[in-house]
Structures are given as structure tokens and as C-alpha cells.
Design brief:
Blueprint: E1 3-8, H1 12-23, E2 28-34, H2 40-47, E3 51-55, H3 63-71, E4 79-83, H4 88-97, E5 101-104, H5 105-120, H6 128-150, H7 153-163, H8 168-175, H9 179-193, H10 198-207
Parallel strand pairs: 1-2, 1-3, 3-4, 4-5
Amino acid sequence: MAIKVLVYDDNAALRTSIEALIVAEDDFVLLAVMPNAETVETDVQQFQPDVVLMDIDMPVVNGVMAVKKIRQFNQQLPVIMLTVFDDDDNIFNAICAGASGYLLKQNATGEIPGAIRMVIAGGAPMTGSVAKKVLQMVPKAINADQEKSNLSEKETAILQLLVKGYSYKMIATEMNISIDTVRFHIKKIYDKLHVHSATEAVSRAIRDKLV
């Protein structure tokens, strides 16, 4: 069975290159090449692709938002991101949205056929430099989870109040404990999060989604 491919990219030259690339492969069928993802829900349901190639930086509906839209009604459809961006935020956002792979456009023409076959086989194709960044993100995520799990229920509650801007006195009143007890718990929070002030603790809590 031929692999049915649906493509989204607002760059006309790249659309032409991808179209030629896919048409040249005997086991691929090009369903459509779209300049934006405004109608992505309708397109996916109409064309029933096996794989979607999705640009990130598009007008109206960007690639990350398009993946989120797809995932609302289809969790299995492989979506490979095509982009000039290899910064952490774009990679992280795309993966969190439900992307199945991530290729940089400068390498795309050489990598697309293999990436399509890989994702159909259950793999997660990524340009080498992107894969390296993803691996570097993993320890950070694990550490954040460990730190979150190391906070007791009371410490988490106090951290939530700190994030809301409560003073020590307000926290004591809210939780019906003494100010000395609040100080004791906050010192333990600082030690566990490796910070030295309430501002640092709040910043860490927000950044790592600890509360």
C-alpha cells in the first residue's frame, strides 16, 4: 500500500521541492500541498492521509496550533514538523503539541523520504541537531519531576501561596500555622529547589510547573 502524504508549507519554492520529492518515490502518494493550515481539520478528514508534513512558521494557523487541532480528533496520525527553527522553545512546543518528528528545512529534502518511512514504522524522525537538543531536555524534565515529588503536600501548598504573592503572615493565617512554622517549611522548600529567596522559588515554581 502506498503511503498517502499531506503537506503544509507557506514557502512556494519548498512546496515545489517537496512535491517533486514525494512524487518521485514509488511508495508515496501526494494528496495535496497546502499553503497554510487554516482548514487542517477538514483537510485531514477529507484526504485521510497516512502522514502529514507540517511547517511551523505559517500565517493564520501556525504548525504547532495545527498539530493541536489534529490531536483533538486524531491521536495516531503521524505529523512531522518542517522548520528553519531549532531553538528549544519551538522544539518543546511542537513535541508537547503532539508532533511525531522534527526536521530542519535545510536538511529536509534529503531526510523526508526516510523520515516518512520511519514514522510509519513507529519511529520518531529528527534531524541530528534537534535530537541532541531533545536529549538535553530530558534530564531537566526528570529533575523537575523529582523535585516536585520531593515537596510534601504542605510544602506544595505553601509554594502555591508564595506564587500568589502571599506574605509569611498571610500564609500562616491561611494555613492556620505559626509564622515560625511557615519559615521552617519555606527553608525546606528552598533547600529542595536549590534556591535562596522567595523570588527564586516562585520563578522556579512557574518555570518548572511545580504548582
